[in-house]
Structures are given as C-alpha cells and as structure tokens.
Amino acid sequence: MNQHTTNEEFWATWRRLLTRFGQRGEISVGLQLARLTALGEHPVSVGRLAAAVGRSVEETVTLAQQGPGAHWVRVQDGQITLDLSQHTGMLRRRLRIGQRSFPVSGCAPDVLLWAAVLDQPLTIEETCPATGTPIRVDLTPDGVAALDPEQAVVVYPAPPAFDEVVGMPADEIDATICSQGPLFASAEAARDWVNDHPGVRTFGIRDAYDHQRDIAHELLDLAAPATH
Q1: What is the rounded (10 degree) CA torsion for 6, 133, 188, 145?
Q2: Is the dihedral of CA 192, 176, 154, 148 positive or negative?
Q3: Lowest mean pLDDT among 29-33, 75-79, 175-179
Q4: Which fold has domain 7-223?
Q5: Rounded Cα–Cα distance for residues 113 and 6 (Å)
Q6: Percent of the chain with pLDDT over 70
Q7: What is this structure's pTM?
Q8: Quick one: which H or E segment has residue 137?
C-alpha cells in the first residue's frame, strides 16, 4: 500500500480485505471459536460452533483447521477448542484473561480482534522492541480500559494477500506477516521499524481497537446464520 495513503483509506482497505476473506469463512469461524471457548479456556461442541456460523459440522471443522490459526485448533470426540500453548514462532507477548496467563506468538492486531469478541476483559503485556519499555493494554468488549504507556502504538503490516496467507505454513505466516505487527511504546520508538518495513503503519492503540471492534463484529455478523 502507498505510504501516502490516508488512515481512512488504510482502514477501508483492511476492512474490505478482511470482509472478503471472512466470506470464505476461515476468519469468522476462528473468531466464533475464540468467543465460544473464551480463547481456549474450555472446549465447545462442534455442533454449537457450526450453528453459530450457519454451516455444516464438516465445513465448520474444515474451515477451523485451515485458517491462519489452524495450528491452535484441536478437535476430539465432537469437541473443538484452541490450544494456545502450541507455538510456531517467537513468543512476543503475554495474554491475561480471567485466571489464565500465557505467552503467545502471532501479531498484535489479531489479539485486538480476539479481545473484541470476548465476553470478558483481556490484557496484553508486551515489551517495546526498541526501548525495552513494558507495555500493558487492558481491553474490554467496550474499549480500552487502561493503557500504559498512554502513547503506545500498534504496528499494522501492509494488508496481505489473504489468498497467499491461507496457503502458508503457520511458521511462515508468523515469520513474514505476524512479525511485522508488534506494539511499541510510542510512534517515535517505532520510527526505525517503520522505515525498515515498507508499507507498515502505526496507530494509537485506542484508535486501532475501535476500528478492530467494528470489523470483528462485522465478521461475526457475516458468519451468523440467516434468519427468515
């Protein structure tokens, strides 16, 4: 994406690509799985997940197992869940949800999507790769409850070609795309990173989460079964 693209154009492109990919099902099924299992706290029946996304059991399992987070999906005896202890790359951050605390790989923008669909708060703890400053973000379904430091930013990679992402091994996704989505203590701290990674953009975490929440709920609505 052109570096001179406005923020509004960036978000319009990001929304369009995620929506197009969501129509295929992988992201929407993944978000429903995150919501129904409280991000892997407990399993959910495959039938319940299938009903939530309006697809057959077989198609639902297939979509869950072929999306970008497929390495986390576990299916056994009619139950499906997320096993976030399975890592494919660098453990860039720690998540806290309820009584659980665990490290995760992946990219920060994905965590914002997860937080938007959960029914409980989620906290991100990460270290700024430029300054070593600890970063803490407390997210609720309604917005950012607390942010330290307040000027922390999230980096978004250039909108990827999602058709290519689906075919990538999980470790390649983590190394090539997810590695470009960290948190920094400030836009100034992220400056060298942005200069070294053409196409990436930084956004204040509050602003980014507002956009991600809207997108996440659109993706859930996209996957919801039709009513007559």
Answers
A1: 40
A2: negative
A3: 175-179
A4: Beta-Lactamase (3.30.450)
A5: 22
A6: 84
A7: 0.85
A8: strand 134-140
Q: Under 8 Å CB-to-CB from 118, ≥6 apart: which residues?
A: 34, 35, 38, 39, 97, 141
Contact 104, 91 (CB under 8 A): yes
pLDDT of 166 reads 56
* Secondary structure class of 92 (helix, strand, coil): coil
Domain boundaries defined on the chain = 7-223
- Round to whole Å and give the CA distance between 209 and 216: 10
Secondary structure class of 123 (helix, strand, coil)? strand
Q: 7 Cβ partners below 8 Å, 6+ apart?
A: 201, 203
Taking residue 129's Cβ as centre, other Cβ atoms within 10 Å add up to 17
User: Taking Cα atoms as reference points, which of 197, 151, 204, 191 lies closest to residue 178?
Assistant: 197
The 10s digit of each residue's pLDDT in 121-174 is 999 999 999 999 999 999 999 999 999 999 999 998 776 645 555 555 555 655
**Residue 226 Cα distances to 51, 55, 73, 96, angstroms:** 11, 10, 26, 34
What single DSSP character describes residue 226?
P
Q: Cα separation of 212 and 109, whole Å? A: 8
Give alpha helix (H) positions in the chain. Answer: 7-24, 26-36, 46-53, 57-66, 108-117, 162-167, 170-176, 191-196, 205-223
What does the alpha-carbon distance between residue 196 and residue 193 come to, in Å, rounded to a whole number?
Answer: 5
